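User: Thanks for the earlier help. One more: histidine kinase. Can you show the sequence and predicted structure together?

Assistant: Of course, both are below.
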Amino acid sequence: MFRKLRIQLTIFFTLGTGFILAAMSGGCLYISQKSIDQNSYNNFLNSTSSIYSYLEAQSMIPHQWLLEQELNNHFSIKILDNQQPLFFTDLKEEPKLTQLYTQALKEAQEKHSLNLDTYTAKNILSQHVEFSMSGTDQKKYYAGVAFLPKENGFLTAIILYPLDLLYAQKNHLRFIFLAAVLLGIVCLGIFSWFFTRHLLSPIEESRRKQTQFIASASHELRTPLAVLRSCLCAVQKSAPSKTEHFYGIMEQETERMTLLIQDMLLLANADNHSWTVSMAPTELDTLLLDIYEKYEPLSKEKNKQLCIQLPELSCPPYKCDKNRIQQVLSIFIDNALSYTPDGSKITLLLKQTKEYFILSVADNGPGIPPEEKEVVFQRFYRSDQSRHKKGHYGLGLSIALEIARLHHGSLKLSDTPGGGATFTLLLPFVK
């Protein structure tokens, strides 16, 4: 399911961002082509103006100069002296080029109001027009037609500039833009593929944990339900004098189920961010003393020594949910009492640094293997050697972790010097 969703998101992101990229590139291409057209036309105007000025100033026009202008500017130039071709233009012209000259002259007269037939008197100022036209060969040209008065009449200059090079330049630019857009879309597709994996991985991990949570919860609930079912059958078949024993077992299993469901509801509230805390200034050293007094008789009963270490100077009040902090320490002590052998020492400790209040529970039991330290806070996790113990579902440390997060703190697991495990609650100290 997630792979199909990943493919769909990748296609959506690629097409969406690709469309935006293509639209922006199209706008840039349009502006670039406009700039190329304008620059090309301005260059044509500057070049024709230079040619007109030279023709107007010179009494003799070298054939070599004309050839150089045509070669350097990619022009085709025809000059008429009093409506007659100059001697060096008497060379054989291609019929197509002759038609283009005639068309340019005709359009200058009919569309741009340049009537050369009226300019026969002396001392009339030069006149010229420049325009674009479609030739009879279906190609585009810039055309310039000028009337230049001379002492013995006038010169007519017709200049043609084919736009083949301009179109080739624009096509090259379009190809570059197209290649850039396609390359960009491919890169976007690759990026989207990895980005969607990063985007969906938390959701996929959450679904995996949810599935695992449901499976583990179902497994944990199945055991007490099976016991209840077995006891009910036994009650039905046993004599009334023997049913009290089965009712006691049923009450114990019901209590186990109640505790499990309460823990699951707490974690569900934490996942939904609906788990509220009641913050109030709390004397942490007093809180630890209360915990010590609560568990000291139980530790003696289990043949274990419970100790407490408090700082010499009293700690300032800390704003927290007193009941929740007690719950965290109770979880630590319950685990220590359950998983350490007889005669073990359990130490309840409070320290204050510049950054944290440190509350920890250390034992000198078997400790926790390094490979399990990263997973002990996962829900329903229990080490193999403790799975037979009733009342421990592997949710306690998960609940403690959520309580620490509600207080913007953290939990830390480390080895006790000399052997054992130390669970530490770090609460940020704010002055």
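User: Great, one quick takeaway?

Assistant: Residues 164-237 form the longest helix (74 residues).
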